[in-house]
Amino acid sequence: MLFTLTDAFVNSQEWTLSRSVPELKVGIVGNLASGKSALVHRYLTGTYVQEESPEDMDAGGRFKKEIVVDGQSYLLLIRDEGGPPEAQFAMWVDAVIFVFSLEDEISFQTVYHYYSRMANYRNTSEIPMVLVGTQDAISSSNPRVIDDARARKLSNDLKRCTYYETCATYGLNVERVFQDVAQKIVATRKKQQLSIGPCKSLPNSPSHSSVCSAQVSAVHISQTSNGGGSLSDYSSSVPSTPSTSQKELRIDVPPTANTPTPVRKQSKRRSNLFTVSEPRRRLLLCFT
Question: According to the UniProt record, where is the region Disordered (predicted)?
């Protein structure tokens, strides 16, 4: 049955969406009795598969579905893993859903084992995780064996991940599980972009960095040469043969028009030096 479902989705519109639609990669792990395949089937088709062959469940499946998160379209890639998570699976996923059956003790213990396998290949703090306990066929003849306290302890052991109890028979919480994990992926990506955003923006603003560099250089020169004076004070005291850095500084902060140039001062001093006073002229006339 799962094989037919896979063929149907390969030929459906979800597989032909534009590559420009961002992808959200979700991995689902659990043993054969966990009810994970029925969970995926209910989410994708809205129907419940009561019985599946072990061969189909062991093969797992690959599915896609278009969803909307915060007004943005995404392509949800669902990977129903047929066995324990391996390295390639661990590096592929953006988030993981661990599934066990509330009717089966072994499936509950398997989650611990699969989580340890994931931790060998990937830092589990990097990826969102959701824990799901399925109750598709609980009855008086098939009672619940995993109580709420044990299930919540397991969720705490899995980095305090969100815990849901679902029923694929009636669709209880099924849609909510996949919508929540998709939102967690989007939120994680936004958080990562914010943390690296300032570092990425620096190379894209050369003018900003050059201005900051010039200001730092100007302040450094002013404090060294002028005893910590202001930039405008320093610009008026630049010698007549400034260094390269000083020339650049004077270009950024030109001298005011009222400041006399050294040439004018020098020419004035030369004219006063060779002017003959009136008493000296009379003395010279007496000797002639």
Answer: 223-271
The string of pLDDT tens digits covering residues 26-52 is: 999 999 999 999 999 999 999 998 755
Q: Is residue 273 part of a domain?
A: no
- Asked if residue 59 and residue 117 are part of one domain, the reply reads yes
3-state secondary structure the chain: CHHHHHHHHHCCHHHHCCCCCCEEEEEEECCCCCCHHHHHHHHHHCCCCCCCCHHHHHHCEEEEEEEEECCEEEEEEEEECCCCCCHHHHHHCCEEEEEEECCCHHHHHHHHHHHHHHHHHCCHHHCCEEEEEECCCCCCCCCCCCCHHHHHHHHHHCCCCEEEEEECCCCECHHHHHHHHHHHHHHHHHHHHHHHHHHHHCCCCHHHHHHHHHHHHHHHHHHHHCCCCCHHHHHCCCCCCCCHHHHHHHHHCCCCCCCCCHHHHHHHHHHHHCCCCHHHHHHHHHHC
Domain contains 84: yes
CB 233 within 8 A of CB 225: no
Q: Do 236 and 152 share a structural domain?
A: no
Structural domain tally of the chain?
Answer: 2
The answer to whether position 207 is within a domain reads no
- Regarding whether 227 and 187 lie in a shared domain, the answer is no
* Residue 210 one-letter amino acid: S
Interstrand relation of 72-80 and 61-69 (parallel, antiparallel or unpaired) = antiparallel
Tens of pLDDT, residues 62-114: 999 999 999 999 999 999 999 999 999 999 999 999 999 999 999 999 999 99
Contact call for residues 113 and 146 (beta carbons, < 8 A): no
* Domain ranges, residue 250: 221-256
